[in-house]
Amino acid sequence: MEYYTLIIFFRFFLRYIIMCTSAEKIKAFVIDWLLSQYEGIIIGNEVMYGSSRKVVDLLAIVDNKTIAIEIKSAADKLSRLPEQIAEYNKVFDKVMVIAAAPHIEDILRILPKGTGLYSLENEKISKIAQMLVNHNQDKLELLNSISSAYLKKLYPQYRDFNANKIRLLLSKKKKADIQQLLVTFYQQRISEKFQLFLNDRGTQTLVDDIPTLSTFTLIDQF
């Protein structure tokens, strides 16, 4: 019995490894496409955001705007996509979904207006729905995406307050000012690793290059 259980586990584990490798290959292709499309882009991998401490597949900064990029391979389910987009819209300036071609019709049925949709098929990415600037960010969610240590350094008059108090005080600022705080914070956090990634990348992105873009995974809450 234990032998058969081990065999089943091994098969499941092997499928999982193959699926993860395939997903990372898709991400590498998407990164190369982004680099070809946007001059001056900065990219981070699996960047944490918001009060729920979730991560976005890729974060891009283009022309001082943040872009959340969600990638859906053919093997991915779409059940969480509406919630993911809703969470992204609380924080990021733009939201882009890049999905395998078989998913496109189903995604179009649930896609909010202004969310960009791109189809991935035969190593080609095609635009399906135009990506627009999002004006529905939540000020506290923006601030919860910024390390309290960074905020204390920027506003030393608040250094003795806890994270919640600092963010509550800063939430009285204009949304545009808070958005700029977040852009600057992300730029500082991901720029160095992104430059290292570019230096090591060669002519195209390999799966082994992607971890270099993973700059930080924890937003302190205290």
Structural description of this entry:
The chain has helices spanning about 1-35, 80-90, 105-110, 140-145, 150-155, 165-170, 175-200; strands spanning about 40-50, 55-60, 65-70, 95-100, 115-120, 125-130. With about 220 residues, it is an alpha/beta fold. It has one domain (about 1-215). Helix 3 (about 105-110) links the parallel strand 4 (about 95-100) and strand 5 (about 115-120). The longest helix is centred in the first third of the chain and has 36 residues, at about 1-35. The relative contact order is 0.15. The model is unreliable at about 5-20 (pLDDT under 50).
Brief sketch in words of this structure:
With 222 residues, this protein is of the alpha/beta class. It has helices at 2-37, 81-89, 104-110, 139-144, 148-154, 163-170, 175-201; strands spanning 42-49, 54-62, 65-72, 94-100, 116-121, 124-129. Helix 3 (104-110) links the parallel strand 4 (94-100) and strand 5.
Any idea what the radius of gyration is? Answer: 19 Å
Secondary-structure class: alpha/beta
Number of helices: 7
| Major beta sheet, strand line-up | 1-2-3-4-5-6
Number of domains: 1
Helix content: 40-55%
